[in-house]
From TrEMBL:
Residues reported to bind [2Fe-2S] cluster: 90, 95, 131, 135
Species: Anaerobium acetethylicum
Co-factor remark: Binds 1 [2Fe-2S] cluster.
Keyword field: 2Fe-2S, Iron, Iron-sulfur, Metal-binding
GO MF annotation list: 2 iron, 2 sulfur cluster binding; metal ion binding; oxidoreductase activity
Lineage summary: Bacteria, Bacillati, Bacillota, Clostridia, Lachnospirales
Protein name, per record: NADP-reducing hydrogenase subunit HndA
Iron-sulfur is among the record's keywords: yes
PANTHER family to which the protein is assigned, alphabetical: NADH-QUINONE OXIDOREDUCTASE, E SUBUNIT, POTENTIAL NAD-REDUCING HYDROGENASE SUBUNIT
């Protein structure tokens, strides 16, 4: 895998930008408005790419570095788009000792992306997580809200086919 994240090109619409500008205008004069603006911007776009951060920076007169610092500090924010199908592989203790690391490796291989990335066609994104609360089904992965448990590496390709 490359050292830089693979991602789909930014494809924000004029409507999204107008919605963001309204959110900024409604919050611009409130102290501490950056977090709510970032949260609403992520709701609008699904993530917070540089292009969106620049708009917020310019409109709120906040240095881009400060915005980037907030976005990268809080795990609720994402710099990268999520795919139509969001795959989460549990790397919690129970899952990890039963082979979830191998499941993650197989997904990286099949999707040709790394953890935290989105396929170029926008169909899949891949994220490791710490626990999904299904330890009795270890190892577990989720695709959107669907939980798959007691998996073997050989099961991964079949699961992906369901979502293509």
């Amino acid at each position: 895998m490359s050292a830089t994240k693979k991602t789909v090109p930014f494809a924000g619409t004029k409507e999204q930008e107008m919605e963001l500008l309204k959110v900024i205008q409604d919050n611009k004069n409130d102290k501490g408005a950056l977090m709510p603006v970032l949260q609403q911007a992520q709701n609008i776009y699904g993530y917070l790419p540089r292009e969106v951060q620049v708009i917020i920076s310019n409109e709120m007169d906040i240095p881009l570095e400060r915005i980037y610092g907030v976005v990268t500090f809080y795990s609720q924010f994402s710099l990268y788009p999520k795919g139509k199908n969001r795959i989460s592989v549990c790397l919690g203790t129970a899952c990890y000792v039963k082979g979830s690391g191998d499941l993650l490796d197989k997904l990286k291989e099949l999707l040709e992306i790394d953890n935290g990335e989105c396929t170029p066609d926008g169909k899949f994104s891949l994220d490791a997580c710490r626990c999904v609360g299904a330890c009795g089904l270890a190892p577990v992965l989720m695709v959107n809200d669907d939980v798959y448990g007691r998996l073997k590496v050989e099961d991964v390709a079949g699961i992906l086919k369901k979502y293509e």
